[in-house]
Here is the input.
Amino acid sequence: MMIATVAICTHNRSADLREALLSLLHQSFKGPFEVIVVDNCSTDDTKQVVQEFKSMVQIPVRYVFEERLGLSVARNRAIREAGGEYVLFLDDDAKASVDWIDGIVSLFEQDPLIGCVGGKIEPAWEGSAPPWLSPENRTLYTILDYSEEIEEMRKPAIPFGANVAFRKSVFDSMDTFREDLGRVGSNLLSSEEAELIERIRSRYKVYYTPHASVLHKIPRSRISRKWLLRRIYWQGVSSAVSSNKKTGIFVKSLLKVPLFLLLTIVFIYDKRRIFRNISRITYINGLISGVLRTYN
Here is the structure.
């Protein structure tokens, strides 16, 4: 019986994908596992990279082409294709630690009520970490260091998609990722993970382990305030799209914009506060756009 399926969803990142796959070569896990790469409409040499990796290893490796563009679509395809008892998602621009599979599987097997496990995500900055990055915005770069010990994640804390795993049987009785959420092409729509994990949490436990870490690349192109504001905007859009209280979000957002504009003027000589207020205004604009998006 296949115990684990490592699923990597990818779109035009063959060089990064190669490194992600190579990080699976020396896993400490002794049980049977497979690797599934879901190619989400790539136009580069992704298929060749997967075939080269397949020729290097004895474990089952499958290449699956998914023609409908969208991260949630690709993840759902991976879940349907998976033959393992546990489905472990690794981002195509992340590298797994040696104990990654073992750390996740061993935690699942401690308790059948654990439905989701997330692990530590360490940043691999291209260059160096930006000195202007505030602690509250680090998670927007998919950085997660929740605890030094194995710990249940209580609401609203969730694992991140670069290093998250699911007990496959949970999907026997509930839907998978919402396909109206999640990145499609170059947009930064998100919240598909949070929405799914909250549904899983209603029936199962969600756990974190620091003993199954991954190293997640952060390219130089993202290390700018401009990119961060774009990411914050799309977080607002995502929050609005996934919410069931869109009217309330719309009204509250409209009322908050003048307040933060005023605070920006008041703190005009404090660069940190100005950026914080601009970030809040950007998020609110995303909320408003997200509400309007659902009615178009």
Helices lie at 14-22, 46-56, 71-81, 100-108, 192-201, 225-242, 246-266, 271-295.
